[in-house]
Design goal:
Elements lengths: L7 E7 L6 H15 L3 E7 L6 H11 L3 E5 L6 H11 L4 E4 L11 H12 L2
């Protein structure tokens, strides 16, 4: 892995998404492994009414590159997103929805676009 590549933080605001988060993490892992020497997934639970927070806690316990934040009240998607962005540890931050509407496999395209814009 090229250690000159920046690390990537993926921030996902989550609301009532207990059924999609494990699949999101499963699909992100090979993409992030190939894309960056350091990476993390930050899942921000926006005070969901289902088992979202429990799923996040389970993922954090079993997968070291996942971090979880639990908001004590529903703050809305944008505030949850900002909370995750503030907690991000790496140079590149990618934001995604919790329902896999944004395919994780598109992250390398974003990286290429970011590198191309730096050379303009």
């Amino acid at each position: 892995m090229d250690s000159t590549k920046p690390g990537i933080s993926v921030v996902v605001p989550a609301y009532n998404s207990e059924l999609s988060l494990r699949e999101l993490a499963r699909r992100l892992e090979p993409v992030l492994e190939a894309a960056a020497p350091r990476y993390e997934l930050i899942l921000v639970d926006d005070n969901s009414r289902d088992g979202t927070w429990q799923v996040i806690k389970d993922l954090v316990r079993t997968i070291p590159w996942i971090r979880g934040i639990h908001l004590m009240r529903n703050s809305g998607q944008h505030n949850a997103l900002l909370c995750g962005v503030r907690a991000a540890r790496h140079e590149l931050i990618v934001t995604m929805d919790d329902d896999l509407q944004h395919p994780p496999e598109e992250i390398p395209k974003l990286q290429r676009s970011q590198r191309a814009s730096q050379h303009c």
